[in-house]
UniProtKB/TrEMBL annotation:
Domain of life: Eukaryota
Catalysed reactions, semicolon-separated: Couples ATP hydrolysis with the unwinding of duplex DNA by translocating in the 3'-5' direction
Keywords recorded for this protein, A-Z: Hydrolase, Signal
Lineage: Eukaryota, Fungi, Dikarya, Basidiomycota, Agaricomycotina
Domain Helicase C-terminal: from-to ranges: 284-443
Name this polypeptide is given: DNA 3'-5' helicase
Amino acid sequence: MATPWLLLALFLFWSTVCANSFTFYSPEGFTLVRSILLTALPTFVLHSYQLDGICKVLDKIDLVAVTPTGSGKTGFLFLTIIVMIAIAANPSLCPTTTFPEDPAIVVIYGESFGSDCFLTEIDNSKEENMTKLGISALIINSDTIASARILGENLWLKTRAGIAMLILGPEQLISKGCQDLLKHEPFLDRVCALGVHEIHLLTIWGLAFRKAFTQIGFMRPRFRSGIPMIGLTATLLSDSRVADAIFAMLGFNRGEFYLIRRSNSRHDIQLLFRTLYSGIDGLYFPELAWVVRNNDKTIIFGATISLVFRIKIYLDSLLPAGINRDLRVRTYHSINWPDENLETIALFKSNPQCHVIVATNGLAQGNDIPAIKTVIQVGEPESAEMFVQKPGRARPNVTNPRAIFYISATRQAKALKIISQSDAENAADAKKEGTVAMERPVAQIISARCKPFVQDELYDNPVTD
């Protein structure tokens, strides 16, 4: 709650501001937004780049924020709605701007596996965090809908009023419940902004196996005109073809939105590249034997469920008698029941005896599991985005976080060949070999003597940040 002296100070402040020329993206606007957020979150550290983006959105300008993992991307969403709620509750804070009495932001949260039921753990953590901040949040995906149905609840009706942040899985955009919600005029009047988390997935997954992502671009016309959109990611390649494809799917035109591009290099994480001598299709991975003797919280990524199973079985075989294998080494993938994946994350967070998770890419994005010290990738990363995202799972609050990539000598040689050939030659080789071509950015990273330098080039990272 705002204290009387702060309200008085804000009133006096506004008495000196020219109402006709006010914008949030101005010294006066920065002061106002800082004051509102300091009142709502006294201990929160507001970054200058967050303030920049929030003020642009409040001025109804679209935002694309490219910031590293762990840098507070979600803050662009919850800080914006906090300001909107404060002004809606007390219009005297900003006499030149009005927000509906019950403002809301709709967020498309497109992470985890190809079915949105696996968003539950990630979304639950977001919902819990929003609640702690005093924001009423609701997640709607196939899993939460099923749980609500058992209780006789209709989440789509619940979100019509009193929910400040609605978090949707992409698959819900074509559901009847969502269609009915978007026909409810009072709800449309409440929506003040749209958010899309991890926008790089629009092309990586939307054009491949998760077609629901292509629906995100059609969402905007279904809301009131003039509503700003917030696009967030840590991995937007500098390649204009990739970026323009993502912007087109969002309905953005270059020059008509505000871009924040910070370096996505995580200099606090040690990057290690090691040669994988074991066959990736085999049953033994002696390079990983040290993991079971290590007590650090570790995530091991494998490209396929088969590889995850084989790594799990191998690590289990190394554990001494008396050790609970199903507790010490867990798996996380789409064949597991959703409850089992949720249990894995819960155990990893709370049980000191649970040390290792062997996972597919579903755990590579969006999770904020504390105390992860070591991230291991067996085989090359599938994309440059995965090269950035996976090390980012290591938490900055642990001592000496690290990411280790085990890549075979054959694939290292393949990377060198790819960067020496044209895309047409590489595609012909892949067709002849009956394999999927290694992406050129991945080959550039693998073959580079200085990996961070190549990362900076691929993502147009600022020299100073």
